[in-house]
Design a protein that fits this description.
The complex is a heterodimer of chains A (582) and B (221). Chain A has 14 helices and 21 strands. Chain A is α/β, with parallel strands linked by helices. In chain A, the strands form 5 sheets. In chain A, strands 1, 2, 3, 11, 12, 13, 14 and 21 form an 8-stranded mixed beta sheet that branches. In chain A, strands 8-16-17-18-15 form a 5-stranded antiparallel beta sheet, with helices on one face. Chain A is globular. In chain B, the strands form 2 sheets. A two-stranded antiparallel ribbon of chain B has the order 1-4. A two-stranded antiparallel sheet of chain B has the order 2-3. In chain B, a hairpin with a 5-residue loop joins strand 2 (17-20) and strand 3 (26-29). The longest helix of chain B is centred in the last third of the chain and has 15 residues, at 146-160. Chain B starts with a strand and ends in a 12-residue tail after the last helix. The chains are: A alpha/beta (582), B alpha+beta (221). The interface between A and B is large, with 66 and 68 residues.
Chain lengths: 582, 221
């Protein structure tokens, strides 16, 4: 093991949150900052040749190499977990920019009551709540986070339309959203045919459609850091691809250009951090292995753990920092409050072509009339829901071939199937649900006793299954979609949700949250609301691993908001007087 | 060292330009003559003929338009199996291998190359010489197998992936579904053409970017 020259701050992970912390630190302090990224360098020049559905959308060439490290899954503590051998329900990224390079660009703020959900749900529903519900208050409120949401939106240049500007409701925006201090930095993306039909139909039915907030810029934009990027070209290569023109906000086209100007910032790729080294309640640095297999110790005054949720939790476990959660005893905090996101989509078939190969990741319209607890009494056991949307991300020909109305043909290969598939090509869209996934005591992460990564370290194990509440969310949204479809001139053409168990095969979303949750007291949280580790005050664990529960909206913007909130606390308070902030 | 194997195909069977008659029936125009000798990377010539025949049953060439044969799907599959995908370079392949519930997907030890060899053995070396009806029956009896599911998925991929991967010859698959291929911008068109088919002339990635692609199958397996 080679000992390296000490740095002031070592950051584990070169994605959204790691580079955001780095940028705040090097532009506001004189500290030297090293970011360690286990993947490869990446940038704009790499992405033009990536417009290839097979390698990037089907074989998932931008994702973490699952042969080297994966997670295992079981439905309950009674089962034996097996490894996720090929990607399915989520897609962890790797390389500079992380999953922030291949994300879709959907840019939501969470509903305000998410941050005080325990208090809110207890007041509203009391004894009716499921016994094993593990919802929490975060210890930080929406009002405290609002400036950081706005800061992130400006950095990215998010496109959208405000529906609640400082309490004033605005038609055409999301009137159910949390109050915002400012209009979006750029106007909404253009319509597709499908989103246009959905907007008209939902408006006619009395709902309140609005454009999905998008990190795929609607027009050229210069952010407060002076970084200029072009508007979206609607080429349809967003999700699972890097943007070839830089219109989709990615760490490499927003934060990295600023960081490169600072000599006090260093980015080291191919560096796989395997342990956070600590002694008597203080992190002393990190141990990593480089691409050639050589081992290093990097001493640091402060360590920021800023990798994806899975690796944040796993690295804390491997480093023996914090108390592992024990679901039987209900003790410990590390690994608990694992949530995903509840997603489902139901097909609609049109009798006209959609030209659906055009699109942008976040292009679409939604309604939030049943978002959060809107319009729900809880009497039927349904407490929280989310959004219904119709999106046009750009259909690709391999993935979309063979979508057929129910009963069109029994075959899924051969002449009849082929003819039917051709007849319905470019005629299919879908209505989709994205909903809050509530945390339960039985959904958690720990280390697998059997399976290991390429170094021989234990894999992270998921114990996770859907519950009655998620089934009810899907059924309610299905019924709602079945009402909306006829107003679009079509019928909903999917079977009613089947109450199936969690599966690792079908893509759900890459929104694994929790495991290193924040909270106002060390008894049941891993980090404080400033994302400082309760037991190791010079260790900060940032990103969506800190969420006690998922919101309905996609988590990137909130992940960044809590991280910027942490950066302010670190720079303005902690560095002046290093120690526990709470 | 592998013996050099080739698949010999009449040039007129591959690619071509797809036209539609007034009755909206597809008509494939093909002016190429002679034969094409395609070097194989993984299959023997005999195996390639078996797989080509099976793909043709999955995605047949018929009155609804050209299929796996004209797209050269078997060439696509041959390259995929020869590359890192075929060797499971990017799948988690540490043991123990145990059967699990369907929600956990394929948990087997065999990589795609091994799965194809097992599948070809089941189809038989003379599969391509059997009458079409017998071929269909044989495939129907294998529908639930992992091999068949891979073969079906790969056939669709070979029909519609970028031609740099070896299939979709002459962009015949994209012509069939009206997909234009990767394009730099739809800024002027995204909110136009509502409800009417807009079908720009297709082009492949290398053609658009004017430089060679780096298909993953060319990486060392």
């Amino acid at each position: 093991m080679t000992n390296l020259k000490p740095v002031d701050v070592a950051i584990i992970g070169g994605g959204w949150t790691g580079l955001a912390m780095a940028k705040e630190l090097v532009s506001r302090t004189s500290l030297n900052v090293l970011a360690l990224e286990r993947g490869v360098p990446r940038g704009l020049a790499d992405y033009a040749m990536d417009m290839d559905e097979l390698d990037y959308n089907i074989r998932l060439r931008m994702m973490q190499n699952i042969a080297e490290e994966t997670v295992t899954h079981r439905h309950s503590v009674r089962d034996t977990a097996v490894p996720v051998r090929q990607y399915g329900s989520f897609h962890p990224g790797t390389g500079v920019g992380g999953a922030g390079e291949h994300w879709t660009g959907i840019c939501f703020r969470f509903m305000p009551d998410i941050f005080t959900l325990r208090t809110h749900m207890t007041e509203k529903h009391g004894a009716a709540l499921p016994a094993d519900l593990a919802v929490r208050d975060w210890g930080v409120t929406y009002e405290q986070l609002e400036p950081y949401y706005w800061y992130t939106e400006q950095m990215m240049g998010v496109s959208g339309k405000a529906g609640n500007l400082r309490g004033k409701l605005i038609d055409g925006g999301n009137i159910f959203e949390s109050p915002r201090s400012n209009e979006y930095p750029t106007p909404p993306l253009k319509h597709s045919y499908a989103s246009h039909l959905f907007e008209e139909a939902t408006r006619k039915l009395g709902y309140h459609p609005y454009p999905t907030p998008a990190a795929n810029l609607s027009e050229n934009y210069t952010n407060p850091d002076g970084v200029t990027r072009p508007g979206c070209a609607y080429c349809g290569f967003c999700s699972r691809f890097g943007c070839m023109i830089g219109a989709k906000s990615q760490p490499t086209n927003t934060l990295l250009p600023v960081l490169r100007k600072h000599k006090s910032f260093q980015l080291r790729t191919g560096s796989w951090v395997r342990r956070i080294v600590h002694e008597s309640g203080r992190a002393t640095g990190v141990q990593f292995t480089d691409a050639a297999g050589e081992e290093f110790f990097q001493p640091a005054e402060t360590v920021i753990l800023a990798s994806f949720t899975l690796n944040n939790v796993r690295l804390l476990r491997l480093s023996k920092i914090g108390t592992p959660y024990d679901p039987a005893a209900g003790t410990g905090s590390l690994g608990r409050n694992l949530t995903h996101q509840v997603q489902n989509a139901w097909r609609i078939f049109l009798n006209k072509p959609l030209n659906a190969f055009m699109g942008a990741g976040a292009l679409g319209q939604r309604i939030s009339d049943y978002d959060g607890g809107n319009g729900l009494t809880g009497e039927d056991g349904l407490f929280r829901l989310g959004m219904l949307n119709c999106s046009s991300g750009g259909e690709l020909p391999i993935a979309s071939f063979g979508a057929l109305p129910q009963g069109a043909t029994k075959a899924n290969w051969g002449a009849e199937w082929k003819a039917a598939s051709l007849q319905w090509a470019d005629r299919v869209s879908s209505l989709g649900l994205v909903a809050e996934h509530l945390p339960y005591r039985h959904n958690y992460m720990d280390l697998d006793p059997t399976y290991t990564d390429k170094f021989g370290d234990p894999l992270l194990r998921f114990t996770l299954d859907w519950t009655e509440h998620e089934h009810k969310q899907r059924e309610f949204a299905y019924d709602l979609s079945a009402k909306i479809a006829p107003a679009m001139g079509v019928k909903l053409d999917s079977a009613r949700p089947s109450r199936a168990r969690y599966n690792v095969i079908q893509y759900q979303s890459t929104h694994i949250q929790g495991g290193a949750a924040m909270g106002p007291s060390p008894e049941n949280s891993v980090v404080n609301p400033y994302l400082q580790h309760w037991d190791v005050p010079n260790l900060w664990v940032v990103g969506a691993s800190s969420f006690p529960q998922s919101g309905s909206g996609n988590p990137t913007l909130t992940s960044m908001a809590v991280t910027y909130h942490a950066a302010d606390a670190m720079i303005d308070k902690y560095l002046k007087n290093p120690g526990r902030l709470l | 060292m592998r013996r050099r194997e080739f698949l010999t195909i009449p040039a007129s069977a591959l690619g071509g330009m797809l036209l539609y008659t007034l009755a909206r029936e597809p008509f494939r125009l093909q002016a190429q003559e002679g034969t094409v000798k395609v070097p194989l990377r993984f299959f023997t010539a005999g195996e390639a003929r078996v797989i080509a025949a099976a793909c043709e049953r999955i995605f047949p060439s018929d009155t609804s338009g050209p299929g796996a044969k004209e797209a050269g799907v078997v060439i696509y599959i041959d390259r995929q199996l020869a590359g890192p995908y075929g060797a499971d370079k990017y799948r988690y392949t540490k043991g123990p291998f145990v059967d699990s519930v369907p929600e956990h997907g394929y948990q087997g030890k065999e990589n795609p190359r091994e799965t194809y060899h097992q599948g070809i053995a089941k189809l038989g070396n003379n599969f391509d010489e059997l009458p079409v009806e017998e071929q269909i029956q044989k495939l129907q009896s294998m529908e639930k197998t992992h091999f068949f599911q891979l073969l079906r998925a790969h056939t669709i991929e070979g029909m519609f992936s970028d031609p740099m991967h070896g299939g979709n010859a002459g962009l015949i698959g994209w012509q069939l579904v009206g997909y234009p291929g990767p394009r730099m911008s739809y800024k002027q068109d995204i909110d136009q053409h509502f409800g009417t088919a807009w079908r720009p002339k297709p082009a492949g990635l290398e053609q658009i970017m004017r430089r060679p692609g780096k298909p993953w199958e060319d990486e060392k397996a």
